[in-house]
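Here is one record:
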Amino acid sequence: MSYQKKYLPLVLGIAIAAGIFIGGKLNFSDAPDRLFTTNSKKDKLNRLIDYIDYDYVEDVNTDSIVDVTVNGILDNLDPHSVYIPKKDMQRSTENMKGDFVGIGVSFYTFRDTITVIKTVEGGPSEKAGIKGGDRILMANGDSLYGKGVEDDDILNRLRGPVNSKVNLTILRKGEPELLNFTVKRGVIPIKSVDAAYMLTEKLGYIKVNRFAESTYREFKKGLKKLLDLGASEIALDLRGNPGGFLHIAEQLADEFLSKDKLILFTKNKRGDVEKSYATRKGSFEEGKVFVLIDENSASASEIVAGALQDNDKGTIVGRRSYGKGLVQREMDLGDGSAVRLTVSRYFTPTGRSIQRPYEKNGHKDYFEEYFDRLDSGELLNPSKIEVADSLKFKTPKGKTVYGGGGIIPDVFVPIDNSLHNETLQYIEQYQFFDNFIFRQLDLDRHAYDGISRRDFIDSFKIDDDLVVKFQDYVNTQTRHKITFVAYNDEVKQYLKATLADQLFGNGAFEEVFNQTDIMIDEVIKLSEGR
């Protein structure tokens, strides 16, 4: 199963729907008997469902009708109030919790057989001796190969209670017989910090892909690594980060702000205001900070960027962020499903609401605003960003900032059209890079045994023959004939970064890909005073 490396605007709607939400119990001022008492509006819905259930001429799955009804109600609210059906709750919870129980492998279904891409470092499968390229044929005697086996079936067989055991039958190239491994399932982290490494002798880089329960712990670990390596400046990359938990965003912002600095405040429908302040525990309150954002940075990402910008801490670099200033809370619906309902708005320290309008054109247009920005030229020219003088605010040091639709960066960096053309987006979306590199590695995994991670990142070159092979592979997978003449260098960069990831993991993709990233180049220039 491949995993995401780069983000695409086309899938933003799904990611953004998660938004920010606050865990815990509801604290309504109304008593429960008032909130949930019978009334005519609820009676009407209940009666309609009962009529369909008992009297309608044909059998109908009323559960599906209820799902449609709930979604219909939420469609009349804001775009970020969403329904999570029972079947999606486990995956949603795992994603926000930041871990799951399993055997610790990334896999790819290759010719109807589960093939291990790589094992999680320190995870159950690595400890048991499973390696990249191994074919998992059976789990506890049940076959896992063949055309009829779905990914969900595979996951259900490989996952189970923590510390439970699963017996795996493995086919390994070069071994004359099948191998048997007993793997004890464990807690497997879903990484939210993709990379933490040094860009220069003084500038550390850390990439956060979402704000899950585990994110702050991962961030602290990455930040400590950079400080130990001598970082006196930090580039915090929040590009493509769709958000997550509010309190995790507050904890990250706290690392950079001194005691009693306002991080944000929230306001609900009754006008109740809750303010969040920085504490004394921040470990990077003195050094320079550069926050990288783009049009796909949303919610919790914008909280961090807005808190630092409004407190005159650091420099925001990139393009205008998504523009989500609403806070959701997850509420259990009693049957295993839940709703994430918008319960308040948040404001940056200067009082800005960065929520962009959603009332006029409907949810579909709201989630596709990226294309409006592209058509208007905003992604290439900061003068095309529409701002309202009525939403102008001042930071303590007198810098002008704007509300009404995202965080506008201090230093603008245009979109790199060489990496955001439709062909490369299509290839990345359908995971052709991942699958091709896996197939190449599978031909001879020992070809890279003598190359260290550092030597690979610094010196390894992708030759033209591999690009031609990749082009041929893509053209066997699609009806559209594609040539890479116009962006040969970009394809090489993707191939090298993907190969680095499958060989070394642990941020190798980002370390390779960032070598030609124009926003990273701009941050380095700012750091060096150029």
